[in-house]
Protein backbone atom coordinates (compact mmCIF):
# COMPACT_ATOMS: atom_id res chain seq x y z
CA UNK A 1 0.00 0.00 0.00
CA UNK A 2 1.26 3.46 -0.93
CA UNK A 3 1.21 6.35 1.54
CA UNK A 4 0.85 9.86 0.10
CA UNK A 5 0.04 13.31 1.39
CA UNK A 6 -3.34 14.94 0.95
CA UNK A 7 -3.71 17.02 -2.21
CA UNK A 8 -6.24 19.70 -3.11
CA UNK A 9 -8.63 19.17 -5.99
CA UNK A 10 -10.50 21.70 -8.11
CA UNK A 11 -14.26 21.83 -7.95
CA UNK A 12 -15.98 19.09 -9.93
CA UNK A 13 -16.98 20.35 -13.37
CA UNK A 14 -19.63 17.95 -14.64
CA UNK A 15 -20.60 18.15 -18.29
CA UNK A 16 -23.78 16.94 -19.97
CA UNK A 17 -21.82 14.12 -21.61
CA UNK A 18 -19.45 13.16 -18.83
CA UNK A 19 -17.93 10.47 -21.01
CA UNK A 20 -16.60 13.22 -23.28
CA UNK A 21 -15.03 14.91 -20.26
CA UNK A 22 -12.98 11.92 -19.06
CA UNK A 23 -9.58 13.60 -19.36
CA UNK A 24 -6.22 12.22 -18.38
CA UNK A 25 -3.01 11.50 -20.24
CA UNK A 26 -0.88 8.92 -21.97
CA UNK A 27 2.61 10.22 -22.59
CA UNK A 28 2.14 13.83 -23.65
CA UNK A 29 -1.31 13.36 -25.19
CA UNK A 30 -4.46 14.27 -23.27
CA UNK A 31 -7.09 11.59 -23.86
CA UNK A 32 -10.08 9.94 -22.17
CA UNK A 33 -10.14 6.62 -20.32
CA UNK A 34 -11.57 4.64 -23.21
CA UNK A 35 -9.02 6.11 -25.64
CA UNK A 36 -6.28 5.03 -23.24
CA UNK A 37 -7.62 1.50 -23.50
CA UNK A 38 -7.49 1.77 -27.29
CA UNK A 39 -3.95 3.20 -27.32
CA UNK A 40 -2.58 0.55 -24.95
CA UNK A 41 -4.35 -2.30 -26.73
CA UNK A 42 -3.08 -1.18 -30.12
CA UNK A 43 0.49 -1.14 -28.81
CA UNK A 44 0.11 -4.59 -27.26
CA UNK A 45 -1.28 -5.99 -30.51
CA UNK A 46 1.69 -4.57 -32.40
CA UNK A 47 4.35 -5.79 -29.99
CA UNK A 48 3.01 -9.03 -28.48
CA UNK A 49 2.02 -11.87 -30.83
CA UNK A 50 0.15 -13.54 -27.97
CA UNK A 51 -2.32 -10.67 -27.57
CA UNK A 52 -5.68 -10.94 -29.35
CA UNK A 53 -8.70 -8.63 -29.42
CA UNK A 54 -12.34 -9.55 -29.87
CA UNK A 55 -14.96 -6.85 -30.48
CA UNK A 56 -18.72 -6.82 -30.90
CA UNK A 57 -18.94 -3.78 -33.18
CA UNK A 58 -18.35 -1.30 -30.34
CA UNK A 59 -14.98 0.47 -30.87
CA UNK A 60 -14.36 -1.45 -34.10
CA UNK A 61 -13.77 1.85 -35.92
CA UNK A 62 -10.74 2.44 -33.68
CA UNK A 63 -9.20 -0.88 -34.71
CA UNK A 64 -10.32 -1.02 -38.37
CA UNK A 65 -6.78 -1.13 -39.77
CA UNK A 66 -5.75 -3.94 -37.41
CA UNK A 67 -8.89 -5.95 -38.21
CA UNK A 68 -7.71 -5.95 -41.82
CA UNK A 69 -4.00 -6.42 -41.07
CA UNK A 70 -4.29 -9.11 -38.36
CA UNK A 71 -7.54 -11.00 -38.94
CA UNK A 72 -6.24 -13.97 -36.93
CA UNK A 73 -5.83 -11.88 -33.77
CA UNK A 74 -8.25 -8.93 -34.17
CA UNK A 75 -11.81 -10.09 -34.71
CA UNK A 76 -15.10 -8.18 -34.90
CA UNK A 77 -18.00 -10.61 -34.44
CA UNK A 78 -20.66 -7.95 -34.99
CA UNK A 79 -23.53 -7.34 -32.59
CA UNK A 80 -23.25 -10.81 -31.05
CA UNK A 81 -22.09 -10.43 -27.47
CA UNK A 82 -22.49 -14.10 -26.58
CA UNK A 83 -20.26 -14.98 -29.53
CA UNK A 84 -17.81 -12.32 -28.35
CA UNK A 85 -17.17 -14.23 -25.12
CA UNK A 86 -17.19 -17.68 -26.73
CA UNK A 87 -14.66 -16.52 -29.31
CA UNK A 88 -12.44 -15.09 -26.58
CA UNK A 89 -12.58 -18.41 -24.74
CA UNK A 90 -11.64 -20.28 -27.90
CA UNK A 91 -8.69 -17.99 -28.56
CA UNK A 92 -7.51 -18.52 -24.98
CA UNK A 93 -7.72 -22.30 -25.39
CA UNK A 94 -5.56 -21.96 -28.51
CA UNK A 95 -2.81 -20.25 -26.49
CA UNK A 96 -3.57 -16.58 -27.13
CA UNK A 97 -4.35 -13.94 -24.49
CA UNK A 98 -7.68 -12.42 -25.58
CA UNK A 99 -9.04 -9.00 -24.70
CA UNK A 100 -12.84 -8.90 -25.09
CA UNK A 101 -14.36 -5.43 -25.23
CA UNK A 102 -17.75 -3.77 -25.45
CA UNK A 103 -20.05 -1.80 -23.14
CA UNK A 104 -20.18 -3.32 -19.65
CA UNK A 105 -23.92 -3.97 -19.88
CA UNK A 106 -23.40 -6.13 -22.98
CA UNK A 107 -20.16 -7.75 -21.86
CA UNK A 108 -21.18 -8.95 -18.38
CA UNK A 109 -24.97 -8.95 -18.28
CA UNK A 110 -26.05 -9.82 -21.83
CA UNK A 111 -23.34 -12.48 -22.23
CA UNK A 112 -23.49 -13.70 -18.63
CA UNK A 113 -23.96 -17.39 -19.47
CA UNK A 114 -20.81 -17.33 -21.60
CA UNK A 115 -18.85 -15.53 -18.85
CA UNK A 116 -20.02 -18.17 -16.39
CA UNK A 117 -19.53 -21.27 -18.56
CA UNK A 118 -17.07 -20.58 -21.39
CA UNK A 119 -14.61 -18.74 -19.16
CA UNK A 120 -15.21 -19.42 -15.48
CA UNK A 121 -16.48 -23.00 -15.55
CA UNK A 122 -13.74 -24.07 -17.96
CA UNK A 123 -11.14 -22.10 -15.97
CA UNK A 124 -10.16 -20.21 -19.10
CA UNK A 125 -8.40 -16.87 -18.75
CA UNK A 126 -9.31 -13.66 -20.58
CA UNK A 127 -9.28 -9.91 -20.10
CA UNK A 128 -12.76 -8.37 -20.25
CA UNK A 129 -12.86 -4.61 -20.73
CA UNK A 130 -16.27 -3.02 -20.20
CA UNK A 131 -16.83 0.68 -20.86
CA UNK A 132 -19.58 3.20 -19.97
CA UNK A 133 -19.77 2.08 -16.33
CA UNK A 134 -23.08 2.42 -14.50
CA UNK A 135 -24.69 5.34 -16.32
CA UNK A 136 -22.10 7.21 -18.39
CA UNK A 137 -24.54 7.46 -21.29
CA UNK A 138 -28.00 8.00 -19.74
CA UNK A 139 -29.47 8.79 -23.16
CA UNK A 140 -28.92 5.14 -24.05
CA UNK A 141 -31.42 4.13 -21.38
CA UNK A 142 -31.43 1.07 -19.15
CA UNK A 143 -30.02 -1.19 -21.88
CA UNK A 144 -26.70 0.69 -21.67
CA UNK A 145 -26.47 0.87 -17.87
CA UNK A 146 -24.64 -1.78 -15.84
CA UNK A 147 -24.45 -0.98 -12.12
CA UNK A 148 -24.75 -4.69 -11.28
CA UNK A 149 -21.71 -6.00 -13.15
CA UNK A 150 -19.30 -6.38 -10.24
CA UNK A 151 -22.03 -7.91 -8.06
CA UNK A 152 -22.63 -10.52 -10.77
CA UNK A 153 -18.94 -11.39 -10.96
CA UNK A 154 -18.94 -11.83 -7.18
CA UNK A 155 -21.07 -14.95 -7.70
CA UNK A 156 -17.96 -16.50 -9.28
CA UNK A 157 -14.52 -17.03 -7.77
CA UNK A 158 -10.99 -16.04 -8.66
CA UNK A 159 -11.69 -12.94 -10.74
CA UNK A 160 -9.54 -9.82 -10.59
CA UNK A 161 -11.61 -6.64 -10.89
CA UNK A 162 -9.93 -3.33 -11.69
CA UNK A 163 -11.86 -0.07 -11.45
CA UNK A 164 -9.35 2.54 -12.71
CA UNK A 165 -9.81 6.21 -11.93
CA UNK A 166 -7.18 7.59 -14.29
CA UNK A 167 -5.85 6.75 -17.79
CA UNK A 168 -2.41 5.91 -16.41
CA UNK A 169 -4.07 3.28 -14.19
CA UNK A 170 -5.91 1.87 -17.22
CA UNK A 171 -2.60 1.51 -19.02
CA UNK A 172 -0.81 -0.23 -16.14
CA UNK A 173 -3.72 -2.52 -15.25
CA UNK A 174 -4.28 -3.60 -18.85
CA UNK A 175 -0.62 -4.36 -19.44
CA UNK A 176 -0.42 -6.44 -16.26
CA UNK A 177 -3.63 -8.28 -17.13
CA UNK A 178 -2.47 -9.19 -20.64
CA UNK A 179 0.82 -10.48 -19.24
CA UNK A 180 -1.05 -13.00 -17.06
CA UNK A 181 -3.35 -15.96 -17.66
CA UNK A 182 -6.16 -15.35 -15.17
CA UNK A 183 -9.66 -13.91 -15.52
CA UNK A 184 -9.70 -10.12 -15.29
CA UNK A 185 -12.46 -7.53 -15.57
CA UNK A 186 -11.35 -3.98 -16.30
CA UNK A 187 -14.26 -1.59 -15.64
CA UNK A 188 -13.90 1.75 -17.42
CA UNK A 189 -16.36 4.47 -16.52
CA UNK A 190 -16.98 7.63 -14.56
CA UNK A 191 -15.18 10.95 -14.36
CA UNK A 192 -11.40 10.55 -13.96
CA UNK A 193 -9.42 11.61 -10.95
CA UNK A 194 -6.95 14.48 -11.03
CA UNK A 195 -3.89 12.24 -10.83
CA UNK A 196 -2.99 8.53 -10.90
CA UNK A 197 -2.12 6.37 -7.92
CA UNK A 198 -0.82 2.84 -7.39
CA UNK A 199 -2.89 0.87 -9.96
CA UNK A 200 -3.07 -2.34 -7.92
CA UNK A 201 -2.66 -1.51 -4.22
CA UNK A 202 -4.73 0.75 -2.00
CA UNK A 203 -3.33 4.23 -1.36
CA UNK A 204 -3.80 6.12 1.92
CA UNK A 205 -4.44 9.78 1.07
CA UNK A 206 -5.08 11.12 4.57
CA UNK A 207 -5.41 10.02 8.19
CA UNK A 208 -8.32 10.52 10.56
CA UNK A 209 -9.73 9.22 13.82
CA UNK A 210 -13.49 8.91 13.33
CA UNK A 211 -13.68 6.34 10.57
CA UNK A 212 -12.23 5.02 7.32
CA UNK A 213 -13.60 5.95 3.91
CA UNK A 214 -12.63 3.85 0.88
CA UNK A 215 -13.20 5.50 -2.51
CA UNK A 216 -13.18 3.08 -5.45
CA UNK A 217 -11.81 4.22 -8.81
CA UNK A 218 -13.57 7.27 -10.29
CA UNK A 219 -15.41 7.95 -7.01
CA UNK A 220 -12.28 9.49 -5.51
CA UNK A 221 -12.77 13.04 -6.81
CA UNK A 222 -16.26 13.50 -5.34
CA UNK A 223 -15.37 11.60 -2.15
CA UNK A 224 -12.28 13.68 -1.48
CA UNK A 225 -14.30 16.86 -1.81
CA UNK A 226 -16.98 15.42 0.49
CA UNK A 227 -14.58 14.54 3.34
CA UNK A 228 -11.95 17.27 2.99
CA UNK A 229 -12.61 18.72 6.45
CA UNK A 230 -13.86 15.57 8.20
CA UNK A 231 -11.66 13.69 10.67
CA UNK A 232 -11.53 10.45 8.67
CA UNK A 233 -8.93 8.27 6.98
CA UNK A 234 -9.30 8.22 3.19
CA UNK A 235 -8.16 5.22 1.14
CA UNK A 236 -8.18 4.93 -2.64
CA UNK A 237 -8.84 1.55 -4.29
CA UNK A 238 -8.46 1.15 -8.09
CA UNK A 239 -8.45 -2.65 -7.71
CA UNK A 240 -11.37 -4.02 -5.71
CA UNK A 241 -11.03 -7.79 -6.29
CA UNK A 242 -9.21 -9.34 -4.67
CA UNK A 243 -10.33 -7.20 -1.76
CA UNK A 244 -7.38 -5.77 0.21
CA UNK A 245 -8.45 -6.75 3.72
CA UNK A 246 -4.95 -6.07 5.05
CA UNK A 247 -4.98 -2.45 3.90
CA UNK A 248 -8.42 -1.91 5.41
CA UNK A 249 -7.45 -3.36 8.78
CA UNK A 250 -4.18 -1.43 8.84
CA UNK A 251 -6.05 1.86 8.42
CA UNK A 252 -8.88 1.63 10.94
CA UNK A 253 -8.67 4.71 13.11
CA UNK A 254 -12.08 3.64 14.36
CA UNK A 255 -14.03 0.53 13.27
CA UNK A 256 -16.46 2.50 11.12
CA UNK A 257 -16.06 1.90 7.39
CA UNK A 258 -17.63 3.73 4.47
CA UNK A 259 -17.15 2.18 1.04
CA UNK A 260 -17.96 4.45 -1.93
CA UNK A 261 -18.33 2.40 -5.11
CA UNK A 262 -19.40 3.48 -8.63
CA UNK A 263 -21.80 0.54 -9.02
CA UNK A 264 -24.51 -1.02 -6.81
CA UNK A 265 -24.37 0.24 -3.23
CA UNK A 266 -23.19 -2.45 -0.84
CA UNK A 267 -21.50 -4.59 -3.50
CA UNK A 268 -18.45 -5.07 -1.26
CA UNK A 269 -20.33 -5.34 2.05
CA UNK A 270 -19.56 -9.05 2.40
CA UNK A 271 -15.85 -8.41 1.82
CA UNK A 272 -15.77 -5.72 4.51
CA UNK A 273 -17.62 -7.98 6.94
CA UNK A 274 -15.20 -10.84 6.33
CA UNK A 275 -12.15 -8.58 6.64
CA UNK A 276 -13.36 -7.32 10.03
CA UNK A 277 -15.00 -10.52 11.24
CA UNK A 278 -13.25 -10.44 14.62
CA UNK A 279 -13.96 -6.74 15.22
CA UNK A 280 -17.10 -5.04 16.49
CA UNK A 281 -17.61 -2.67 13.56
CA UNK A 282 -20.14 -0.72 11.52
CA UNK A 283 -20.14 -0.20 7.78
CA UNK A 284 -21.94 1.97 5.24
CA UNK A 285 -22.06 1.09 1.55
CA UNK A 286 -22.58 4.00 -0.83
CA UNK A 287 -23.10 3.60 -4.57
CA UNK A 288 -25.89 3.28 -7.10
CA UNK A 289 -29.21 2.83 -5.30
CA UNK A 290 -32.28 1.72 -7.26
CA UNK A 291 -30.63 0.70 -10.55
CA UNK A 292 -33.73 1.42 -12.62
CA UNK A 293 -35.04 4.88 -11.76
CA UNK A 294 -36.54 5.36 -15.24
CA UNK A 295 -34.57 8.57 -15.79
CA UNK A 296 -32.45 9.94 -18.61
CA UNK A 297 -30.84 13.33 -17.96
CA UNK A 298 -27.06 13.67 -17.58
CA UNK A 299 -24.47 11.67 -15.62
CA UNK A 300 -24.35 14.57 -13.14
CA UNK A 301 -28.13 14.22 -12.67
CA UNK A 302 -27.67 10.54 -11.87
CA UNK A 303 -24.86 11.34 -9.45
CA UNK A 304 -27.27 13.58 -7.53
CA UNK A 305 -30.12 11.08 -7.85
CA UNK A 306 -28.01 8.38 -6.16
CA UNK A 307 -26.33 10.73 -3.68
CA UNK A 308 -22.93 10.28 -5.30
CA UNK A 309 -22.21 13.95 -5.82
CA UNK A 310 -19.98 15.65 -3.20
CA UNK A 311 -22.95 17.13 -1.33
CA UNK A 312 -24.83 13.83 -1.19
CA UNK A 313 -21.76 11.90 -0.07
CA UNK A 314 -21.01 14.53 2.55
CA UNK A 315 -24.44 14.20 4.17
CA UNK A 316 -24.28 10.42 4.43
CA UNK A 317 -20.66 10.16 5.57
CA UNK A 318 -20.88 13.01 8.07
CA UNK A 319 -23.95 11.47 9.68
CA UNK A 320 -22.41 7.99 9.77
CA UNK A 321 -19.11 8.95 11.42
CA UNK A 322 -20.89 11.14 13.96
CA UNK A 323 -19.60 14.60 12.98
From TrEMBL:
Pfam family, one: Transket_pyr
Domain of life: Bacteria
Domain called Transketolase-like pyrimidine-binding: residue spans: 31-194
SUPFAM superfamilies (UniProt xref): Thiamin diphosphate-binding fold (THDP-binding), TK C-terminal domain-like
Region described as Disordered: 1-21
InterPro entries: PDH/Transketolase, THDP-binding, Transketo_C/PFOR_II, Transketolase-like_Pyr-bd
Compositionally biased region (Basic and acidic residues): 10-20
Any GO MF annotation of the entry: magnesium ion binding
PANTHER family membership: PYRUVATE DEHYDROGENASE E1 COMPONENT, TRANSKETOLASE-LIKE PYRIMIDINE-BINDING DOMAIN-CONTAINING PROTEIN
Name of this chain's protein: Transketolase
